[in-house]
Amino acid sequence: MIFLKTEDEIELLRQSNLLVGKTLAEVAKIIKPGVTTKELDKVAEEFIRDNGATPTFKGFLNQFGRPFPASICTSVNDQVVHGIPNDIPLRDGDIVSVDCGTYKNGFCGDSCYTFPVGEVSPEVMQLLKTTKEALYLGIEKAIHGNRLGDIGAAVQEHCEAKSYGIVRELVGHGIGKDMHEDPMVPNYGRRGNGILLKNGMCIAIEPMITMGARQIFIENDGWTIRTKDGKPAAHYEHTIAIGIGKADILSSFEFVEQVLGDKAI
């Protein structure tokens, strides 16, 4: 069942999502070679709780009944999503996708940004740039009267034109009082197909794009998802409200990009 949100509910969603954006900015301040993803997680959890919210990811149960042990997902290089923070230092040339969720005032926030660590190769930077571009192209199609397939097609066409892989098994989602609501939001599709988009629908659009083949597998921890060919993957995500003529982006990369300055993607 798809729940349309009122203007007041959308504003509560915006508060939770802006907090996610500010949390990602706090993480951005310390990302560099030598820092561990556990250190990133500590900073994120403290910031979320200090701002009167709770991290929605911590304790979230997956399909295997395993609770996620941290407050953010930190997916490094060929890890696509759901990477568990650990004590392994980040290295120069790595990329790390930081996915963050908050719960505040009864509503959820959810957003992700892929960060370069130190000096990253031009080829990998192009993957990041293309994935982020695809996110905004999908958002452009997230308007009242369009179809869900219009979003997926925009993402797919942009990334496949550069021979990147589109992960099929993982999708975006509706969002509101629960982190995952209907509908599912694939990053592939056919224009004019799928459910009708309506004003007040709130969804998380999140392209997960691979440099090589799109095939993935789950590690033995039951959470971490990697590319089968070991090539890097990028992941960017915004929570948006479907609008008339234009989507309303409820999350924000502005805080992150103020920290990154001229290093922003």
Describe the structure.
This protein has 265 residues and is an alpha+beta fold. The protein has a single domain (7-263), classed as Creatinase/methionine aminopeptidase superfamily (Creatine Amidinohydrolase, Alpha-Beta Complex), CATH 3.90.230. Helix content is 28%, strand content 23%. It is built from five helices and 15 strands. The chain has helices at 7-28, 37-50, 122-140, 148-160, 254-260, and strands spanning 54-55, 72-76, 79-81, 95-104, 107-116, 165-166, 172-174, 181-185, 202-205, 208-210, 216-218, 225-227, 233-235, 238-241, 248-249. The strands form four sheets. A five-stranded antiparallel sheet has the order 8-7-9-14-15. Strands 1, 2, 4 and 5 form a four-stranded antiparallel sheet that branches. Helix 1 (7-28) runs parallel beside helix 5. The chain is globular, with a radius of gyration of 17 Å. The N and C termini lie far apart (36 Å). The relative contact order is 0.19. The model has no long low-confidence stretch (mean pLDDT 97).
Q: State the CATH architecture.
A: Alpha-Beta Complex
The total domain count is 1
Order of helices and strands: HHEEEEEHHEEEEEEEEEEH
- Main sheet, how many strands, which sense, barrel? 5 strands, antiparallel
Reconstruct the topology from this structure.
Layout: H1 7-28, H2 37-50, E1 54-55, E2 72-76, E3 79-81, E4 95-104, E5 107-116, H3 122-140, H4 148-160, E6 165-166, E7 172-174, E8 181-185, E9 202-205, E10 208-210, E11 216-218, E12 225-227, E13 233-235, E14 238-241, E15 248-249, H5 254-260
Helix pairs in contact: 1-2, 1-5, 3-4
